[in-house]
Amino acid sequence: MATISVHRRRLVHNLFIAFINVLFVYALVSGGALDVLLAKFQTVRFATMFAGGFFFTSLFTTGPAILLLGKLALEQSLWQVVLVGAMGAVCGDLILFRIVKDAFAEDLSYVLSIRKHKRLYHLLHTRLVRHLWPLIGGFIIASPLPDELGIALLGIGRLKTRYFIPISFCFNALGILLIGLAARAF
Length: 186
Fold this sequence. Notes:
By secondary structure, the protein is an all-alpha fold. It has helices at residues 2-31, 33-40, 45-55, 62-75, 78-99, 101-113, 118-124, 127-142, 147-156, 161-185.
């Protein structure tokens, strides 16, 4: 019974932090603070691109990083932002992969094992679906969704680090490219 309350508390905590993140992004955009920060860091643009990619990976920092990467894509070479940002994202993902993959995989398994989801849990653990985890996790990494979920799926699939790095780079580059293209379109 104690493990159920631990999982629920962790889930509520993460949802609360995601909500705070949305409020923070709104404050950055509406107050013009992002423009001021970018003007201050104009001289270290590659470090800013790298940091934007690094912070693109976490539930707690995805929103501000998307704003930063979009703004950088408007002002700098899109391909520089994509490549340098993807390198930063791989570093962030590696830290998450090493530290949190097992905890998130455990939380995901817990959510899927709740009585209503027993069939889904068994379906998701079939051999065919297990081989699709890297692809599904990669698409989550490429999306604006926090990478922890994608990393959890890769953790469930028992993906080795030597495969994780190129998957992370490619899908993060795709995600940052889509952010840059969207920023340029609007």
